[in-house]
Specification:
With 233 residues, this protein is of the alpha+beta class. Helix content is 33%, strand content 20%. It contains 6 helices and 12 strands. It has a 7-stranded mixed β-sheet. The protein has a 3-stranded antiparallel β-sheet with strand order 1-4-10. A two-stranded antiparallel ribbon has the order 2-3. A hairpin with a 2-residue loop joins β2 and β3. α2 runs antiparallel to α4 and α5 packs across α6. The longest helix has 21 residues. The C terminus is likely disordered.
Length: 233
């Protein structure tokens, strides 16, 4: 009987541990992660989330399920106010969040194979910076922004600049800058995968051109070739 009791206790403990590991993040845990990004100065806005295998929005055949802002006014909404973030999350605990790029940071977005190779090389070079994985498909490298200069002639034109409406035009390397956004960890996707930090937002933001050089080489090596017109002009 004593042996049976020990086995029963062991199985119950194992089941509890499995349940905890399989359970989704609590609102408090998600808020804590998102506040880390807010403290780093990343402006956030609420986004759609998975509803089964679909998107929580009402759009039929949503082209980017659980990967787009809830409101068309997301650029105005995007904020670093922790109280506003807490209100959004309390209203919709399942909400994903996007971060508006081109303000406090830019994001260089590459296929995962190139991202893994580039991350190893950047680490070896001592180049820090936040990095996130989007499921098994993409890596997001957060960098310092090129900003919004007073003199528009100082703006560096780049065919790499990607907006939510031009994603399909850049299957390899994308540069999310002014007017664009990316999902921010933690975020859930309809296929069961997630957006997660590999290196958190507390990391210092690196020079985008230094990261771009490494990413371009990595994309070329894995076959996601950065064509000439993609380079900064």
């Amino acid at each position: 009987m004593e042996s049976g009791g020990r086995w029963t206790a062991w199985w119950q403990k194992r089941d509890r541990e499995r349940a905890r590991s399989a359970a989704p993040d609590t609102p408090a845990a998600r808020l804590d992660q998102l506040l880390g990004a807010v403290r780093a100065g990343f402006p956030l806005a609420p986004a759609a989330h998975p509803a089964g295998y679909r998107c929580s929005c009402d759009r039929v055949a949503c082209p980017a399920p659980a990967q787009h802002p809830v409101s068309f006014a997301w650029q105005t909404q995007a904020t670093t106010d922790p109280e506003q973030l807490a209100r959004w999350l309390s209203r919709d605990p399942l909400a994903n969040f996007v971060t508006a790029t081109g303000r406090a940071h830019d994001v260089l977005d590459v296929p995962a194979e190139a991202g893994r190779l580039a991350l190893e090389r950047l680490t070896a070079l001592g180049v820090e910076g936040p990095v996130a994985a989007v499921g098994e498909d993409r890596y997001l490298f957060f960098t310092a922004t090129r900003g919004t200069p007073v003199d528009e002639d100082e703006w560096w034109p780049s065919a790499l600049d990607s907006t939510p409406d031009t994603m399909s035009e850049h299957p390899g390397l994308r540069w999310h800058c002014r007017g664009s956004y990316t999902l921010l960890p933690p975020a859930a996707l309809p296929d069961g995968s997630e957006v997660r930090w590999l290196r958190g937002p507390e990391q210092p933001l690196p020079d985008p051109l230094r990261v771009l050089d490494v990413l371009t080489d990595a994309c070329t090596e894995v076959g996601a070739v950065a064509e000439e017109q993609w380079l900064i002009g």
